[in-house]
Amino acid sequence: MTAPTKDQLEARLHYPLGDALPEPGRTRVVAPGVKWIRMGLPFALDHINLWLMRDTLDGVDGWTVVDCCIHRDEAKAQWEQIFAHELDGLPVLRVIVTHMHPDHIGLAQWLCERWNCRLWVSATDYNSARIGSQSTTGFGGASAADFFATHGMSDPESLEKIRGRASYYPSMVPGVPRSFVRLLDGQTVTIGGRGWRCIAGYGHAPEHMALYNDALQVLISGDMVLPRISTNVSVYDMEPESDPLALFLDSLQRYRPLPPDTLVLPSHGKPFTGLHERIDQLEAHHTDRLAEVLDACAQAPCSAFDILPVLFTRALDLHQTTFAMGEAVAHLHRLWFQGRLQRHTGADGVHLFRPHT
Question: pTM for the complete prediction?
Fold first, then answer.
């Protein structure tokens, strides 16, 4: 039986706002007290959704921002338009960040300094971002190049470009605020008089925090549940023998108890309903990819680089290839940790995976 296409899978979801998008520098109301901001990104994934929430903090009326965009002048200019036209003359009271990836935390320091307010984020992601803004966190540099080489990437030009990307993360996250308020799994954050429960997720980021409000039945899902694309789940050089796919799939179960008609506000794509359907789709997607990887390794021992055309049928640029490599290792590691594959390191230092004999 032919697998459903992305369009067919997406057709099983419902988009309450249709194709309507916020205009640049403006917002759209998606729920009582919640506004949707959409900002451009200079990548193949060309946008991020941010959220503006009416709030009162310490007796002061204003707004809470959820996620920030990367640090660049175009994003700052859009934020200034938001400040001028969408805040009703009220201040930003705090900045909540779902996780440490650049498109989510890049402008946190600027926003917090601009409004003299505090960052709220998980401690794990705060510290990961702080380290990353001072060096690198698996997105480039010598350590990342060496890691990719052990998984079969051998093109000298590509490896040299990756070595040259040591400042990749700090170019988009030049710094983070010096202090923060820690978000914890299960914690309730009161925003605008409504309680939003933190739901920790793993596998995509160190300690991703989604936010759910039961009265509105709204989930700010960050990158954990996206409507059309599958969330990137990668192994990085800092934790080279991790099993993030197991963590991610386990984390998806944390959303199962939420109502089926929950309005999901994702970081990429459009607000949608059909949360349980989408979880089913993501689980099936990874089940299928794992089967394909296992079959490829049964034909001949494979490195992660060998697996790239199995997982990704489209052409990839170097930026996409670095994420694809992390995904390939993650799928191989899931099968390895399950005992369905064994790993052998050749004389050239490259890890090859094959089924147990």
Answer: 0.96
